[in-house]
Structures are given as structure tokens and as C-alpha cells.
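Handout, section B. The chain below has 371 residues.
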Amino acid sequence: MSDVVSVFEAIDEHNDIITEARTSGDLVLRAKVKGRRLVGAATKQRIRATLRAALNKAIRERRIDLNVASLVELPSGKRPKALVWTPERIAEWRQTYERHITLMEQRKKRLSKLEPDKRHGTRINRLDAYIGTPRPSPVVVWTPEHTADFLHRAQTHRLYGQYYLIAFRGLRRGESCGLRCPDLNLDEGTATVRWQIVQHGNGTDQGKPKSEAGERQISLDKHTINQLRAHKARQNTERLAAGDTWMETGFVFTTETGEPLHPAYVTEQFEQLAMEAGLPPIRLHDLRHGAATILLRAGHDMKVVQETLGLSSITIASDTYTSVLPDLARESAEDAAAIIVNAGKRRQRPRALKPVPPGDGNPRGTTEAAS
């Protein structure tokens, strides 16, 4: 029992170190945890499931008598519901954002007084404040209009094609970084997801997608095809500029010298662009979730969402996106009402009627349309 418990104690300690470093004003301490991820409740549940399966095998082989992993209590690993950034949520977040900035400034000033030799300074990092401000849910997605605003801001960025592909077709960050040139067929309008680059601390690993469903072929719309052609042209310009320093690695999205992209860099650039666009914050992974909301808003069902995003089951799609539907339903109701209202405004009003005197072929004195 103690060995199993110690595994989860180590996980909690890992999370505490990262959280403490990120909330401190110590840049050196924060640099040490850069790229490291918190272990969430769902991951803990999967770790326990793996331990439980291994210990059940040991019981069947009569090596042990009790599966202690079954006795460990953990928080629910239920997936968080996705919420849409509505105007009301954005307004509330902006108020929280201003308060968060004030707290960060006060903390900076205290640290500068307590530890003047460490040169903390008094100015805060606005991007840190933007990312660190609490949100209404761990998973919050932009509306299609928000996504359009982001893409407009990112249009001149060298990774624009990558963000465009994630936003429209829902690739995971690692899948977009791992996309290789032979798997992209712009003439046929397809991209085959066969590889991914994932981050472990500051390092990366290349491998297959996280599940069998993740290995898939996706269709590309004509707009995405055009943006990917423009990306290839930009990349050719960079290849010529790099000269002998260019590395032919075969990846679709690369650095200026052809090397594979580090996923953390892709995220950092995304967050900077989102802040500059004046949008409420989301994770880069939530840009992928936004692709799902676009599909739902276009009238496609959960099965299409599951297959496009490479989810292992339709249950995952339903659990994640069911809460998005009321917001989309409200939008569709407003859209439908707008059609009727606008049609009413455009319709020509009936002409006024004037009375026709009796004895003029109209004995009852009824009215006729004015000429």
C-alpha cells in the first residue's frame, strides 16, 4: 500500500513545485519549471487504472493477495465541460484580469523590497497576467467570430498556416508539429495524421498519435489548402535565405532553418498573438476544441466531430462538448430571429388605401389602393 500511495504523493509534490514556481515572482524558479505540466485528475485516474491492472495480474498469479490500488481515493477524473466565451463571461473575466494585474504588481513590489539583491523589478509580465487570470472553466472556447479575429491578427506570422490548420481541422498541437510533407497532399486536399511531437519537460519525443483513432486522414477545405500553399511558398523563401544552415527534416511546419518545432514555442506564439488581438485567453488545445464547435454550429453531429478530431469514442466528444450546445442553440435562435426581422424591414410596406365614394362602381363605399 505504501508504495502505491508514494506514487501519488510524488505526483502531488510535482504539482506543488510547479504551482509554487509559476505563482512566484522568481524568474529563475519559473524557468526551472518551464514546459513542465501539472498532472491532472484524469491522468491520476489513468495511472491508478494501470497500477490496478498490473496488481490484478499479480493476484491471478498468486503473488499478492490484495490490490491496494483499488483502495486509493482520488478526485474525479471526469472531463471538464467546454464553455463558450460569451459576452457576459468575457466581461467578468476582464474584471478578474484587472484585479489579477493589481495583485501581481503588489507582489512584485513586496519581493523587490524583501529581496533587493535579486533584481525582481517592479514591472509585471503582461502575458503571464493574461494567461494566469482564472477562467470560467478549464476548457473555454472561442466563438467562430473570435477565431476569425485571431486568424486576422496572426495572418503575417510565419506559423499562420499551422494555426489555420488547427482552427479549421482540429489537429492536436503535437500532431500539427509532427505533420510531415509526404502526408500532406494539397492536390487531393487531404492530410494524414501519422506522427506527433510531444513535449516532456523541456525535451520532446516523436511518435505515433496517442490512440488508434488519432491516426487518421482528414479532408481539407479550399481555404485551408490555399493557406498551406502560401505556407509552403514562405518556407521556400526561408530555405533560400538559410542557405547551408537549412536542415531538410521533412516536416511541414519548421523553424526558420528547417528544424522541427518545439511545441512550447508554438504555444507561446499563440498566446502572444491572442493577447495582441484583444481576445479572452484559451489554451492552444482549445483552438482545436473550437474546430469542434464550428462543426456543431454548421449542423454536423457528434460522430463527425469524433472522426475529425481523432477522438477514441463518441462518448468523449459528447462529454466534452454537450455543454457547448446551449450556447450554440441560443446563437441559432438569434440567427433565425434576425432573418425574420431583417426580412420584415426589407419588405415594402402596403400602400395606403383611400376611400371610393358610393355610386362610382362601388356602392358600399369600400376602399381601394391609392394610385
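Note. The first strand starts at residue 83 and ends at 84. Compare this with the example in section A.
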